[in-house]
Amino acid sequence: MIFFNNITKIYPPNLTKKENVVLEDISFKVEKGEFVSIVGKSGAGKTTLFRMLLGEEKPTKGDIFFDGKDVHKVSSREGCLLRRRMGTVFQDYKLLPSKTIYENIAYAMEVTGASDKEIEKCVPEVLETVGIVKQAMHFPHEVSGGEKQRAAIARALVHEPDVILADEPTGDLDPYHTREVLKILLKLNKEGTTVLLATHDKEIVNDLGRRVITLKDGKIVSDSKQGRFIL
Amino acid sequence: MKEKIITSLKRATKLGWKNFHREGSISFVAVFVLMVAITFASFLFLLSGIAEAVIQSVEQKADVTVDFSVGVPEEKILEVREEIAAEFEVNDINYVSREESRNIFIERFGDRDEVMEALEEVGNPFPASLNIRADDSYVYGQISDYLEEEHGDLIYGIDFANREEVIEGIFSVTENIRRGGIIIGVVASLIAILLVYNTIRLTIYGLREEIKVMRLVGSSNLFIQGSFIIQGMIVGITAALTSFLVLFILGFMIPQSYNITLEVNLHQYFLEMIPMVLLLHLAIGIALGVFSSLIAIGKYLK
User: Fold this and answer.
1) Tens digits of pLDDT across chain B (302 residues)
2) B218 with A108: Cβ contact below 8 A
3) Which of A5, A195, B232, B273 could cross-link with B293 by S-S, CB 3.0 to 4.6 Å?
4) d(Cα B293, Cα B201) in Å, to the nearest integer?
5) How does B165-198 read in b/e, with b if 16+ C-beta sit within 10 Å?
6) Does the structure's ipTM exceed the value 0.85?
7) Residue in A closest to B213 by C-alpha
8) How far is the alpha carbon of A226 from chain B, nearest alpha carbon, in Å?
9) Are the Cβ atoms of A113 and B4 closer than 8 angstroms?
10) At B243, is the secondary structure helix, strand, or coil?
11) Phi and psi at residue B112, in whole multiples of 5°?
12) How far is residue B90's CA from residue A19's CA, in Å, rounded to a whole number?
């Protein structure tokens, strides 16, 4: 389903930094329905991998395929359609501050051209799934970090994406909310959604007992089916 | 397909409107700057109109009078008038008979007994004349030369030679004012456009993270552009109407009797220009709002 083929990402030198090799010759595949944790210290290139998969950044070398399509060689229109098949969750939530939680979630459906009826049916359902029905009409700055992250997950899953990309989704959360978020991700995976989770949290990785890809100094140092945190 | 387009349009409109009123302070700044630019453009437009009217009124004061010798029959003078009208680009040629000239003189000096007594003595010393008005000063020279060549025997005098410098001076000044007005207008408009563009660019720069999120959830560029274009349009319309209101109030504060020249009444002029000013405001407001948004957002959609 997803194939990173010999990916190298080098940021060119600038006034303050030398040339920065973030990823070097990275190759791996993710099959449909897998739950894969991508592990590495901060700056290991986890977020860069996600950004390249979303088409936000281009690799210096190599190709990235999503369902057989090179995400950097598709048209702008096809790029949008591919992104709609991926739900994204970030550590900093990336909710639209001028919209309520409900509107943030509905927006992800609006852009796909869903009808008002569908939106009115699906949004309350996902709010229920992630447990933030009461916060629906609040703006992001009016709710807690855990609630924001749930809203971000709700937005990511409302249009039933094939893949969820979760980049340090528990980074800002306390242990209770961390468990809640993981439960939701596992539930979605059980229902068939592929999940890619980028994290540097040892406990999460060891508790999950799923496939783990470990990145160190821009290279894959381990890729095991039922992996553990080894850094 | 058609239904999807209508839904997208409806959603982009709703989104543009919501962004406009929720980002109150940003919208306020954008509306204010645009309003200043539109008001400024309107002042230029109104001023150019007033200046043109004043210029025309001054130019009309420049004329040439051809006096015919006593004894030249009226028919002959009228023939000459027809010739001039046919040969040259003139605005107006008025025939003033000897009797009319005398009456004008009496009207002006009738209250001065010694002048009236002298006039009684000499009878009617006034010549019949043609009073000529043209758009360009060089026409007067041509008419003067033509009359001296073709009808020198009929003519007692033409007051062009002694007024030539004054007439050319008037036309030269008015022409320079027109040119200066165009240059000032163009420079001022460019400044206003840059000011508005930069304000909207800064507004959109502040929303760049939001645009990234929109892209992340799969918004098409067209959908994102659509909402910002509509937001720009709302900013433009609000600024246009506010600016119109300001001018409207100012216009009614002008005293009704205030005349810049005998021919130009500022209050009347303003009332006549209201529909044009409203249209101009809306056109400038919408165009500036939409184009600035379109250009400013393009950078974030590559």
Assistant:
1) 777 788 888 888 888 888 888 878 888 888 898 888 888 877 777 777 777 777 777 777 778 888 888 888 888 888 888 988 888 888 888 898 888 888 888 888 888 888 888 888 888 888 889 888 887 777 888 888 888 888 888 888 887 756 667 777 777 777 787 788 788 878 877 887 888 788 878 877 877 878 888 888 888 888 888 888 898 899 889 998 998 888 888 877 777 666 655 556 677 777 777 888 888 888 988 988 888 888 888 878 77
2) yes
3) B232
4) 7
5) eebeebbeebeebeeebeeeeeeeeeebbebbbe
6) no
7) A94
8) 30
9) yes
10) helix
11) -105, 105
12) 78
B7, B216, B219 ranked by CB distance to A94: nearest:
B216
Query: Cα distance from A52 to chain B (closest Cα, Å)?
Result: 12
Nearest to B18 by CA among B198, B207, B279: B207
Q: What is the DSSP letter of B265?
A: B
For residue A98, how many other CB atoms are within 10 A of its CB? 18
Secondary structure (DSSP) of B150-183: HHTTTEEEETHHHHHHHHHHHHHHHHHHHHHHHH
Query: In chain B, how long is the greatest CA-to-CA distance?
Result: 103
Strand partners, A69: A66
B104 SS3 class: helix
- Select from A80, A91, A142 the residue whose CB has the most chain B CBs within 10 Å, as the one to mutate to test that interface: A80
Positive or negative torsion for Cα A99, A102, A103, A109: positive
> pTM for this one?
0.65
Shortest Cα distance, chain A CAs vs residue B5, angstroms = 9
Query: If we measure between CA atoms, which residue out of B160, B258, B210, B256 comes closest to residue A95?
Result: B210
